[in-house]
Design brief:
It is a single chain. This protein has one domain: TIM Barrel (Alpha-Beta Barrel), CATH 3.20.20. The protein is 32% helix and 15% strand. It is built from 12 helices and 16 strands. The strands form 4 sheets. It has an 8-stranded parallel barrel with strand order 3-4-7-10-11-12-15-16, surrounded by 6 helices. Strands 1-2 form a two-stranded antiparallel sheet. It is globular, with a radius of gyration of 19 Å. The protein binds flavin mononucleotide. The site of flavin mononucleotide has 26 residues, from helix 11.
Length: 363
């Protein structure tokens, strides 16, 4: 029988329990992505709070592309020493830490100005209406290399693994999506072509980090709209990722801001859940691959997690907003107070100054 508070292996990483802090951009780094005392404290608290695996907020892999203010950077070697301090601090409390690396793309309205934003094609992003520059093959090679180099830095800085952000309509998700990717070269068209960009990133990164360094991928279960990436396709992508040696997959979606409104809707024959929005999708994937599956989105109750653990092949539970309210949540549950999370999922945690729980944690 699987239990929440047991040691598990994700690739070569031993994690002390099945709780994951899902990547959460804190808006606390300096303008060019460097660490601040406040940011060190966020991670120290999560580690003290006994989160088994902490995934950092997304870090940009090239300096010129920053989809949001205050996000961490990993675009050159100058970051390595400060992240060594971060990983040492987290390891001191027995937690593991993985850095999420990302290229944002057109899902942004931040600092648009003159900068060039890459996209698979010149198709406006649905929510921001921003149109990017259709990438040339040289630009694709440049970004693939930037991801791989970022992976190398992540390893050098003492992180326990790296997560590639392939979800939430960011650049990799756009390449996967037939809505955004209408390319006619080998990076567009059928699914094998649409996943080529992601697979090249994975394999180039693997060359840089070696066989035993865990690489995780965060994916969108489905684009959840007509003409977008379907769940059937995501399942095939997951099979392929397993085949090429990816160590774990986190199944998400692009709906969390409006998830409460969407709860109960059926897409691709699976239902968005009230608690654990993408649980049906993650469960389905966990049946067809043997690598660990992390489920994320709207979890509140430890009882629910225990039930899922006993009934599915899902291995890990990731939470984001609840840790903004209660960084010590895992410890609280472990110590016997199993009340549900305090977070009410209002998503008021994004503020222009920094991201924090504006409702219960006003400091
Ligand atoms: C303030 C905030 C920042 C986020 N930043 C990221 C991020 O950097 N990378 C990412 O993949 N997801 C990000 N997410 C999404 C979360 O990782 C998670 O998938 C989503 O919030 C659903 O989980 P929850 O219901 O436990 O909050 C962010 C969410 C919030 C609320």
């Amino acid at each position: 029988m699987k239990i929440l508070f047991e040691k598990t292996k994700l690739g070569n990483m031993t994690i002390k329990n099945r709780f994951v802090r899902s990547a959460t951009w804190e808006n606390m780094a300096t303008e060019d992505g460097h660490m601040t005392d406040d940011l060190y404290k966020v991670y120290k608290d999560l580690a003290k709070g006994e989160v088994g695996l902490i995934i950092t907020g997304y870090a940009n892999i090239v300096k010129e592309e920053q989809p949001n203010p205050g996000m961490m950077g990993i675009y050159n070697d100058a970051f390595i020493d400060e992240y060594k301090k971060l990983t040492t601090s987290v390891h001191h409390y027995g937690s593991k830490i993985v850095m999420q690396v990302a290229y944002g793309g057109t899902k942004t309205t931040f600092n648009l100005g003159e900068r060039t934003i890459y996209a698979p094609c010149e198709i406006a992003e649905k929510t921001t209406n921003v149109t990017g520059k259709a990438m040339t093959k040289d630009e694709i090679t440049y970004i693939v290399k930037a991801f791989a180099d970022a992976g190398k830095r992540v390893k050098e800085a003492g992180f326990d693994g790296v997560e590639i952000h392939g979800a939430h309509t960011y650049l990799i998700n756009q390449f996967l999506s037939p809505y955004y990717n209408k390319r006619t070269d080998e990076y567009g068209g059928n699914l094998a072509n649409r996943m080529r960009f992601l697979l090249e990133i994975c394999s180039k990164m693997r060359e840089q980090v070696g066989v035993s360094f865990p690489i995780l991928v965060k994916l969108t279960a489905s684009d959840f709209y007509e003409g977008g990436l379907t769940f059937q396709e995501t399942k095939l992508i997951c099979k392929k990722l397993e085949e090429i040696g990816i160590d774990a997959i986190e199944i998400s979606g692009n709906i969390h801001g409006k998830a409460n409104a969407m709860g109960g809707e059926v897409f691709d024959n699976h239902q968005i859940q009230e608690e654990g929005y993408f649980l049906e999708y993650a469960t389905s994937i966990s049946k067809i691959v043997n690598i660990p599956i992390i489920t994320v989105g709207g979890f509140r109750n430890i009882k629910t997690l225990n039930k899922i653990l006993s009934e599915t092949n899902i291995d890990y539970f990731a939470l984001s907003r609840p840790f903004l309210t209660e960084p010590f949540l895992v410890k609280r549950w472990k110590d016997g107070n199993i009340e549900p999370v305090i977070c009410i999922r209002c998503s008021k945690c994004r503020t222009p100054e920094r991201n924090f729980c504006t409702v219960f944690n006003k400091k």
